[in-house]
Specification:
heterodimer; A: mainly alpha; 13 helices; 78% helix; flat; B: mainly alpha; MetI-like fold; 0% strand
Chain lengths: 316, 283
């Protein structure tokens, strides 16, 4: 029976690999469609046609797209992300520090939102139909229904304008003490936590409620188990798979979230780098950033699926 | 047979009692739709006119929602913004759901390699984060209104496809489909007359949800400056251009945000409060 799970997991990983290839292809061609000739942009208006032609030759811009794609792919596999058009620096150097900043932001958000969302989701499911449950449900619908920038805007209004606890902008350069650190990360993390937790609470609540309606939980109720014992001992172990699945899926919302949050709070992360790169048409930089985001996203949704497969007792 | 089904379902549809929240939500949606249609006739000032000496002016008589960062009338700009936000999103969601649902039904009915290829490809499309996709495409081909509509539609086709295919696959195993097949009906007849009437209600609920996603994504793109370009402004763009008013809580930055929220929350609440039979998604 164990081989059944293994097969399914391997199959899912295979699908993820094929998906990755298609995604790389899509990212490459979408960025190749960027308007304007890169060579003439780089050389500026004073460039002679000969110089432009020479640069095009040197940058392999005249080669067929498929050849350029294969060359780019080959470079990626060797860890060579290319050179930024805008400032002649290796893309890897540009991305390095920024990626760490974004990972810090994502990491802190995850550490905060997972326990918060699981507690709220599970308790709301336990007290289904109560005022508490309805408040949580309405709040989560509210947060899900509004754009991320609005959550950010409201957070700024509340914490920076009315309460004056925190600065509206963040800059990582000047962190000398713990309070500095809190002030820098607070606003972006609060915003992201709201966005991610709302999704996670909804999915967790749904997963636990589904488990609570199964016959064996009813059995536990009938034999006189207390409500908390019923949830913690009987329902939760079986809901664990769906919950982890929900956590991984919700974390994939981080990808969209950081793009908005880093822009609005001027946070020096990789999403801000990419939005700026789009403005300067810095092709290699856009491609690499987009790939990093797609990789992260793909990793999370694949992980979610694999957890769902592994936790299905019928396959064990 | 189809006609008889339609009339009975309609009677039970009207027979349902609606919750108050659902009715209020429907009214808000109706109001925004009317605003979107009638905006050019009801706005008090032209959206380009500078009518206030002060920028980020407060709410007062004559300027009911204050003025924006150039001293233009905010009420007029929000009303006109509704036109773009609602119009573009509606066009995009119509294209996305129509293509997605038709492709999904064809895939479910035909099966085989077509189904496999289509599902694989659209699943891969689904693995590109939506905001990133919008960012790259809009940066690549500019952000005119047709490009925005098509981009938003393409981003949400995979979701609509997946949803419709899952529903259609269930219906496809029913006896009446087998009977129709044995009769020698064409694929077009199968999907139009046998499958579609049986999945239309969950598909419509899905249409509403996808509309919300598209409004949010469009606002997000406009907020990043990659959506509608000035002088046109949808609600997301209005928040972006007035973000400077945030430190003094100007109505110019709060009102467009509230407009987006009122629309999306209403659609969500309406769908949540639809009678169980309509919203039931057994996919």
């Amino acid at each position: 029976m164990k081989s059944g799970v293994l097969n399914l997991v391997l199959k899912r990983l295979g699908i993820a690999a094929v998906t990755l290839l298609i995604v790389m292809f899509a990212v490459f061609f979408a960025t190749s469609m960027l308007p304007g000739d890169t060579a003439s942009i780089l050389l500026g208006q004073a460039a002679t046609p000969e110089a432009v032609a020479g640069l095009r030759e040197a940058m392999h811009l005249n080669d067929p797209a498929i050849l350029r794609f294969l060359r780019w792919l080959f470079g990626l596999l060797h860890g060579d992300l290319g050179t930024s058009y805008a400032n002649e620096m290796p893309v890897a150097t540009l991305i390095g520090g920024r990626l760490v900043n974004t990972m810090k932001l994502a990491g802190i958000t995850t550490l905060l939102s997972v326990p918060l969302a699981l507690t709220l989701g599970i308790t709301a499911a336990m007290l289904r139909g109560s005022v508490y449950d309805r408040t949580v449900t309405i709040l989560t619908i509210g947060v899900i229904s509004v754009p991320e920038f609005m959550v950010a805007t409201l957070a700024v209004l509340l914490f920076a304008v009315y309460l004056k606890w925190l600065p509206a902008l963040s800059s990582v350069n000047e962190a000398h003490s713990l309070t500095d650190l809190v002030r820098i990360y607070a606003m972006p993390v609060i915003t992201l936590t709201f966005v991610i937790s709302a999704q996670m609470i909804r999915m967790t609540r749904a997963a636990v409620i589904e488990t609570l309606s199964t016959p064996y939980v009813e059995m536990a109720l009938l034999k006189g188990a207390s409500r908390s014992r019923m949830v913690l001992r009987h329902a939760l172990p079986n809901a664990l798979g769906p919950i982890v699945n929900a956590v991984a899926l919700s974390l994939s919302y981080l990808v969209g979230g950081v793009i908005i949050v880093e822009t609005i709070f001027n946070y020096p992360g990789i999403a801000k780098l990419m939005v700026d790169a789009v403005a300067t048409r810095d092709l290699p930089l856009i491609q690499s950033c987009a790939m990093i985001f797609c990789l992260g996203y793909l990793f999370l949704i694949t992980a979610a699926d694999i957890v769902a497969i592994m936790s299905n007792p019928r396959l064990r | 047979m189809t006609i008889a089904r339609a009339t009975t379902s309609r009677r039970s549809f009207l027979g349902h009692s609606y919750s108050l929240v659902g009715v209020v939500a429907a009214l808000v949606i109706l109001a925004w739709t009317l605003v979107a249609i009638l905006a050019p006739y009801v706005i008090p000032h032209s959206i380009g006119d500078i009518v206030d000496d002060d920028y980020f002016g407060p709410m007062r008589q004559g300027l009911w929602l204050g003025s924006d960062y150039l001293g233009r009338d905010m009420l007029s700009r929000v009303l006109m913004g509704a036109r773009y936000t609602v119009g573009i999103s509606l066009a995009a969601v119509s294209i996305a759901c129509f293509s997605g649902v038709v492709l999904g039904m064809i895939a479910a009915v035909t099966g085989g390699w077509l189904d496999t290829c289509l599902s694989r490809f659209l699943d891969a499309m689904n693995s590109i984060p939506s905001k990133l996709f919008g960012l790259v495409v809009v940066a690549a081909v500019g952000s005119s209104i047709p490009v925005l509509i098509l981009t938003l539609a393409v981003i949400y086709i995979p979701g609509a496809y997946r949803f419709a295919r899952a529903l259609a696959v269930n219906i496809n195993t029913m006896d009446f489909i087998t009977v129709a097949r044995v009769r020698g009906e064409s694929t077009a007849y199968l999907i139009g007359s046998e499958i579609l009437p049986n999945i239309i209600r969950p598909v419509l609920a899905d249409f509403g949800l996808r509309f919300v996603f598209i409004v949010l994504l469009l606002s997000g793109l406009s907020f990043l400056g990659l959506g509608l370009q000035p002088p046109l402004a949808d609600w997301g763009a209005l928040v972006r251009e007035n973000i400077g008013g945030l430190p003094f809580a100007a109505p110019a930055v709060i009102v467009p945000s509230l407009a987006i929220a009122s629309l999306t929350i209403s659609v969500n609440l309406l769908i949540d409060n639809l009678p169980q039979k309509i919203r039931d998604r057994d996919a």
